[in-house]
Amino acid sequence: MDRPVVSAGSDLLGRHLQSWLGAWPATCPVDIIESEGRCRPGWNGQLHPLMGVAGPSGLVLSVAPGAASQVTSAVAGLAVGGAAFMQALSSAVGEPGRPAVATVFRWCTDPAPTDDVGVWLDRDDPAVPDWLGPFNGRVLVALDADGEVVSGVGLKRHDRFGHEVAVVTTARARGRGLAARLVAQTARCVLAAGAVPTYLHLAANTASARVADCAGFPDTGWIGFALQDR
Predict the structure, then answer these.
(1) Contact 31, 1 (CB under 8 A)
(2) Are residues 71 and 63 in contact, defined by beta-carbon separation less than 8 angstroms?
(3) Which domains are delineated in the chain?
(4) What is the pLDDT of residues 43-63, one digit of tens each?
(5) pLDDT (tens digit, 9 = 90+) per residue, 63-94?
(6) Which of 15, 160, 224, 225 is close enough to 103 for a disulfide, judged by CB 3.0 to 4.6 Å?
(7) Dihedral sign for Cα atoms in the order 53, 59, 65, 67
């Protein structure tokens, strides 16, 4: 079957997934494709030999060149997302020590109309705490009365079409809605720059799910697949 072409006039999410994974959408329930992107460092400088997204047309699993046949054999007949499927993925791509994980995959085109509460700082600004250090670019932070960062958003800039939002709030500042407002503010900035903001979290992380819901990132049933970061 010929793969549908994502044209220049298609939505940003489609262009992002085609760029990030190497192909989109899926042409079968489990569409395992090979991409040179799996051999290049990602947003955090690490290699990501397995990435995947499951949507209405099926699951696209992106692996390094030469690995597709081995992965196909390893997961044949296994329930997608089940424990055996996830274990087979990490072993088949040569990373048995890095468990494969599934996440709720969300994106946003209409952020919640919240007030802006954050300021953008360079990553090497002295005020930026270590927990925001890994992100590749400026970070959006909320400051307390003493100028200390109490909540912050970093962006995983996967490609020019898609930027993944990650947020952290210190324990003493939780319960104020800061995280959701920062995420919505970030989403507006990402969209204004011509990219789509995405948001991934474990299904069991109900706090993160609430933040996403309040910020305008609905759960549409899509699932992300990746190896756990080192």
Answers:
(1) no
(2) yes
(3) 12-106 (no CATH), 119-217 (3.40.630.30)
(4) 989 999 999 999 999 999 999
(5) 999 999 999 999 999 999 999 999 999 999 99
(6) 224
(7) positive
